[in-house]
Amino acid sequence: MLIAVALASVAIDQISKFLVVQNLELGEVVPVLGDLLQFHFVKNPGAAFSIGNAYTWIFAILASAVTVVIIWFSRRIRSFAWAWVFGLLLGGTVGNLADRLFREPGFGVGHVIDFLTIPLLPAIFNLADVSITAAMVLFLILTIRGIGLDGTKAVPAKKADGADNADAAVARDEN
To answer: Which of 23, 31, 83, 95 has the largest count of CB atoms under 10 Å?
Structure first.
């Protein structure tokens, strides 16, 4: 499941970027849903909010490292929901990494194609960013709900005379 989600995420991201590059001029703004959603074609050498424009190569290295860690870590995942989390994260990371590796101005320093803008956010982003954000939202939901990588829910320790099981076990050992 993780691989399928990642591949779909990368494909959708790269196809959307291809269509933007082929059909819009750099800097062009096209209303899609009025002011609620617009296409605004930019090339971003930095990270979120164009931070770190001079360090594009560092972002390429970090994205490569994240990709390797997710692939290595994926063997531990036994949950459908967590497979979605890491599939979306992997797909988004690889989508933006592909831009950094293969787009102008050159290998490792390529600019990421961004084109989505909504009035709630002071940023222009792409579908890889949407995948990464969706992964983080799912991560928070699963973590708050106590769902482990194996899909089981953590059960809180039961109270024994007002103390949790660990305190009760220590008390028994001291007697």
So the answer is: 95
